[in-house]
Amino acid sequence: MDTTRQSSGSQQKIPYRNWINLAILCFINIISYSDRLVLSVLISEIKEDFDIDNDLVGLLHSSFFILFVIGVPVYGYLGDRYNRKYLLSFSIFLWNITNLGSSFLTTYWPFLCLRTVFGLGHAGFTALAPVILGDLFRGGERTKILTIFYLGIPAGLGLGYIVGKHVEVICGSWRWSLRVTPIASVLYMIVWLVAMKEPRRGEIEGKAFSAALLIDDIQYLSKNVSFILSTVSFACVAFTAEACSWWGPHLFNIGVPLLSEDVDLVLIDSIFGGIAILSGVIGVVLGFIFSTKLKAKCPKIDPIICATGLFIGMPILIGASFLIPHNLTICFILLFIGLITMNLNWALMVDIVLCVVLPTKRSLAMGLQLFVGHGFGSLLSPYLVGLFSDYLATLELSSTQQWNDFRALQYAFFGATAIAFVGSCLLMACACFIVRDIKKVDTARDKHGNTDEELP
Predict the structure, then answer these.
(1) How big is the chain by its Cα radius of gyration, in Å?
(2) How far apart are CA 287 and CA 427, in angstroms?
(3) What phi and psi, each to the nearest 5 degrees, are found at residue 175?
(4) Residue 222: burial class (beta carbons within 10 Å; 0-12, 13-18, 19+)
């Protein structure tokens, strides 16, 4: 983020191998998010198959984050000290073998257990991939690369929404949606093992650093105000985002028939997925453009962009939910605009961490941010929204069962979106400290070189 500082590393040409690694990681990232949320368009089929209510459907997704939040700081600690290529490859293999295995289970609780282990596999990739990219690319180029990488979030979500429903229709069982991607993922993992050369931490920036003791790293991060604020705000964003991505398709699937019984739900899921992809790509790219254009005049612009996107996107998404059973055209337009604003933040929030934390502490920092964000956000929101919607359904909010189910889930969804407002406020607070913390990192990097002393 500091455009004035030049180092010897900034003059190096990026090896072609780094671009190959970027392409592989981007593809795997798309599959990662597709696998994670493919079941969200199949909630009605899963409820019928396992004979469960919304609370256990929410728990099914929340269970993904139990071992995920435990695994990310562990992977982060290991990633600062050991070969990240092998750690990441193991995580890819683990999530794909459990994903495939879960598709053959016919009872709820064993299926839930494998989905929990499935989350442990994702933890390694989520914690290590952006940090590896941070050591393969430098400065402003790194922001662009992270933007490309995080296009995998909306692309993967949209692909999961589209493929999940179509595979279920073609194959006659929702379980086949879990069997599509494992082979491709493992093949790309093998290519990754061959192509990847482990980069030295911080070398691309002109300095190679050595790792410190774990207690020193934790003390350093606990004093980093920008890291603390961005981490807590990420928990708020994760709470809202996970509720929207898991329950959003189901809200459409139960709301659209209220408008017309003749609507093709497979088509609706495809449109929903297409909007998720297009709006996500536009949102992530716009976030990058706003950041690069405005950063020279306003160095603290990144958290401001993230905060503004959340603040604008919340009421738009709430308005879209009201229109589902009334006017799909306007609903989809609002959904498209709301998702664009909500997607401004993905690459920028990661870049904030990479800019305010020293290279040898980045894997641990990412791990801890993911632990807090997904532990207090993603882990809780799918289950709590499902549990709250079941409670609201007992209050008889409408005279018919269909409308009652829709209103119950819709009102529970409103509570999840409100949490994003807290995240927006915390990001604005982060903007007050980020320039100071970036300067601390630059000073330490230039002053200490190959040492890793605590910042003053």
Answers:
(1) 22
(2) 15
(3) -65, -25
(4) exposed
CB burial string 313-342: b at 16+ within 10 A, e below: bbebbbebbebbbeebeebbebbbbbbbbb
Q: What does the alpha-carbon distance between residue 388 and residue 409 come to, in Å, rounded to a whole number?
A: 8
CB distance 271 to 395 below 8 Å: no
Which residue intervals of 38-151 are DSSP H helices?
Answer: 43-50, 54-62, 64-79, 84-102, 108-136, 139-150
Query: Rounded to whole angstroms, how far apart are CA atoms 324 and 331?
Result: 6
SS3 (DSSP) at 397: coil
* Six token digits for residue 147: 């933007």
N-terminal to C-terminal alpha carbon distance within the chain? 20
The Cα–Cα gap between 16 and 141 comes to 15
The predicted pLDDT at position 25 comes to: 86
Here the tokens at position 385 are 């929204």
Buried b (16+ CB within 10 A) or exposed e, 366-386: bbbbbbbbbbbbbbbbbbbbb
Q: Are 279 and 340 in contact (CB under 8 A)?
A: yes
The tokens describing 393, both together, are 């359904």
Asked if residues 166 and 285 have their Cβ atoms less than 8 Å apart, the reply is: no
Q: Give the span between the Cα atoms of 179 and 436, in whole angstroms.
A: 48
Structure confidence at residue 205 (pLDDT): 53
Is the model more confident about 422 or about 206?
Answer: 422
Reported pTM: 0.77
pLDDT surpasses 90 at 311: yes
Q: Residue 58 in contact with residue 383, Cβ under 8 Å?
A: yes
Rounded distance between C-alpha atoms, residue 452 and residue 437, angstroms: 16
**Average pLDDT of the chain, as a whole number:** 84
pLDDT tens sequence across 147-188: 888 888 888 888 888 888 888 888 888 899 888 888 777 777
